[in-house]
Amino acid sequence: MQTILIVDDTPENLLLLSELLQPHYRVRAANSGSRALQVAASTPRPDLILLDVMMPEMDGYMVLERLKAEPWTAGIPVIFVTALDRGSDEEHGLTLGAVDYISKPIKPAVVLARVKTQLDLKLARDWLQDRNAVLEAEVARRLEENLLIQDISIRALAHLAEIRDPETGNHLRRTQGYMRALTSRLLEHPRFAGFLSEQNVQALIKSAPLHDIGKVGIPDHILLKPGKLTPQEWEIMKTHSRLGRDAIEQAEQDAEKPVEFLRIAKDIAHYHHEKWDGSGYPEGLAGDAIPVPARLMALADVFDALIARRVYKAPLPFERAVNIIRQGRASHFDPDIVDAFLDCLDEFEAIAARYADSEADVLAKFERLPSAPVADA
Predict the structure, then answer these.
(1) What distance, in Å, lies between the first and last C-alpha atoms of the chain?
(2) Is 299:337 a contact under the CB 8 Å cutoff?
(3) What CATH code would you report for 3-132?
(4) Domain residue limits, the chain
(5) pLDDT at 272
(6) CATH code given to domain 164-368
(7) Any idea what the Cα angle at residue 114 is, between residues 113 and 116, rounded to 5°?
């Protein structure tokens, strides 16, 4: 049974409305504005309030304003019941949020009809709100599921490259962590703030594991060659950046609509070996011509190569790796990204320690490869 709260400082009016409504609804009564606010906030919560305007201490307008100010009573429809008959009074009440206006002396048929109309409207609104809540929850569930599938697919693709390369899966985790640390420092930087929106940051971190996906296309005799590559072999090795771009670009073309993280992943795969001074590959881009995601990955990838354990080399001490990055400021790396790196060394060190490769892990992976690994490319 729906609940109606009647608010009036005159006992006779409370009695009259109660007798009229009780055969059809659960009726609660309050003889003052302050008491009305208490009842409205208690259980059972009223589905509708019939509110007198002219009351001492707190009139109906003040009560309505207080009801609308509280989230637990703001949605309760209010009908003013009053002897005031000026148009301005009715307009004022409706402006404050009342849904209707009933003049005294009341007409029973009019009261019942208007009460029923407002209760029916409230039922419809409540049903729509519940339905929307269910739909929103379902949309959120499916979005979460799709994002999970997307993340798993990205890692699966990244591991395709890892299977044929001596680097471990922890390299992917570390570089993702480094990218997150760098972007958090650059969010407010005037050169990067325009790009590093929340959406782009998430896409950038999501895309990071795909930076070397193109190595899938490099022949084993080059990718896994022990020792130094010949100039011809090195030229083939460098094509992994274009191979990665082409693979991601094909995925973009297969998608029904643009996928932001694929665009960013393509820039990372293609350009993360470019250098700030233009001496990198594959295009020899310099400075701001290098996409921001690739500039970030360039530092993250090189730093990790320095501190990572390999079968053919021990990890460099953290401070020595930091000095090498510092020396590459404005030559290999964007100077502002190096400054951000130097500002979050504690985070880099923690990430490196958390996802460090043990000697046993590196040896185990090496044993699964057809030959010894190539020197860092």
Answers:
(1) 75
(2) yes
(3) 3.40.50.2300
(4) 3-132, 164-368
(5) 97
(6) 1.10.3210.10
(7) 65
Of 172 and 373, the one with more pLDDT: 172
Average pLDDT over residues 131-144: 82
Contact 343, 322 (CB under 8 A): no
Residue whose C-alpha is closest to residue 3's, from 37, 35, 18: 18
- pLDDT above 80: residue 60: yes
Give the per-residue pLDDT at 375: 40
The predicted-structure confidence for 161-198, as pLDDT tens digits, reads as follows: 666 665 555 888 899 999 999 999 999 999 999 999 99
Closest CA to 210 of 237, 184, 240: 240
Tokens encoding 231: 């100039």
Burial class (CB in 10 A: 0-12, 13-18, 19+), 109: exposed
Looking at every residue in the chain, the average pLDDT score rounds to 87
User: Inter-axis angle of helices 108-163 and 11-21, to 10 degrees?
Assistant: 70
Are 3-132 and 164-368 the same fold in CATH? no
Q: How far apart are CA 41 and CA 232, in angstroms?
A: 80
> SS in 3 state form for the chain?
CCEEEEECCCHHHHHHHHHHHCCCCEEEEECCHHHHHHHHCCCCCCCEEEEECCCCCCCHHHHHHHHHHCCCCCCCCEEEEECCCCHHHHHHHHHHCCCEEEECCCCHHHHHHHHHHHHHHHHHHHHHHHHHHHHHHHHHHHHHHHHHHHHHHHHHHHHHHHHCCCCCHHHHHHHHHHHHHHHHHHCCCCCCCCCCCHHHHHHHHHHHHHCCHHHHHCCHHHHCCCCCCCHHHHHHHHCHHHHHHHHHHHHHHHCCCCCHHHHHHHHHHHHCCCCCCCCCCCCCCCHHHCCHHHHHHHHHHHHHHHHCCECCECCCCHHHHHHHHHHCECCCECHHHHHHHHHCHHHHHHHHHHCCCCHHHHHHHHHHCCCCCCCCC
287 Ramachandran zone, left/alpha/beta (phi>0; psi -120 to 50): left
Contacts of 278 by beta carbon, 8 Å cutoff, 6+ apart: 284, 285, 286, 287
Under 8 Å between Cβ of 170 and 356: yes
How distant is the alpha carbon of residue 94 from its chain centre?
39
